[in-house]
């Protein structure tokens, strides 16, 4: 599934699943994604969760106009470290209004280990 997001593409992040209220991104961990301790950088974890949560509320059909939004709040809990493999970020809309929507996010390893969770509010533009 192709996305028009040069920043995410530059990090090797791929959109795998996107439907109304849900989004899933995958990213194979590369050496440039690691911090000094050899773990997936916390800022990249935040980026993955922000993308998955944000996209979850912005789905538009194939022939519909693209929808955009901005992050209002994003709270992240870092639970475990990842050093290799692929990470999977998922966002699921829990409530949606006319302009604001609220999302729960998870980041898991390809082995199923929960690495981080997120809760956020986003505004459609």
Please, could you describe this protein's structure?
The longest helix is centred in the middle third of the chain and has 15 residues, at 42-56. By secondary structure, the chain is of the alpha+beta class. The protein is globular, with a radius of gyration of 14 Å. It has helices spanning 6-10, 42-56; strands at residues 14-19, 22-28, 69-78, 86-96, 100-109, 114-124. It has a 6-stranded antiparallel sheet, covered by helices on one side. It has a single domain (6-124), classed as Thiol Ester Dehydrase, Chain A.
Q: What is the count of helical runs?
A: 2
CATH superfamily: Hotdog Thioesterase
- CATH class assignment: Alpha Beta
How much is the radius of gyration in Å? 14 Å
Mean of the pLDDT scores? 96
Q: Roughly how many Å apart are the termini?
A: 23 Å
